[in-house]
Amino acid sequence: MDGIGSTLSARSKRDGSAGGPERELRWVGREAVRAGRRAGPQVEAVEIDLNGALAPDLRVALEYWRAKKGQRLAPTRADIDPVDIAALLPRVMLVDVSTDPLEFRYRLAGTGIVRVHGVELTHTRPRDLMPAAYGELVHRHYEEAVTRRAPLVHQFLLERETQRCGYLRIILPLSDDGDCINRLMTVASYDAGTQALCDCFQSARGGEARR
To answer: Domain residue spans in the chain?
Structure first.
């Protein structure tokens, strides 16, 4: 798994899009959760049923995780071979989990994710993400994945002025000792409209910087 870092860097010129036909956002599963109304892009998220219709790339990630997991709580980090998930790497993040208090920090961020956010995310925390409401929402999702000790899929919707954009993301727990979740692997699934996401996050950075 240590090879993921070099593999991600080697793919820095790829745009990280999921490919395939553009998907229309559909609100399914649980009721949408609002991350708060404040200046800048507004953020909502809804959990998607794992047994329902998932984006093909997220289904690939989930089935890979399940195959590596076997009868255990979760795979270890060493179980994840970057060669096996090469097509997903630009949209993969590895998250270190610490306890007392529960906190999260990005160990690796795929180049496709960095391109969308417009900043390097390695060594930052979810709560460092902008807009702040988005970062807080991501932090809560990670908390829930650790508490439930199971994969989670969420659909995000970001809205600014008259523009709406969104993406899907799966959280996959990892455990080195078979008991505690000490890392998370996430995979984002972007449709063809990644530029709209880039614009939303750029707008959020500019808005936060002016405060």
So the answer is: 29-209
Asked if 104 and 184 count as a contact pair (C-beta separation under 8 A), the reply is yes
pTM score, whole prediction = 0.82
pLDDT at 192: 63
Encoded tokens for 105: 């920090």
> Look-up: residue for tokens 């745009």?
15
Distance CA 145, CA 121 (A): 20
Q: Tell me the average confidence (pLDDT) per consecutive run of 10 residues in the chain, 211 residues long.
A: 48 41 36 46 91 94 98 97 97 96 97 95 96 95 98 93 87 97 97 82 69 48
DSSP structural state of residue 50: T
The superfamily CATH assigns to domain 29-209 is PAS domain (3.30.450.20)
Provide the pLDDT for residue 3: 55
**Distant-in-sequence contacts of 65-73, Cβ < 8 A, 24+ apart:** 65/151, 65/172, 65/185, 72/175, 72/178, 73/149, 73/173, 73/175, 73/178, 73/179, 73/181
- Taking residue 179's Cβ as centre, other Cβ atoms within 10 Å add up to 11
Between CA 107 and CA 65 the distance in angstroms is 19
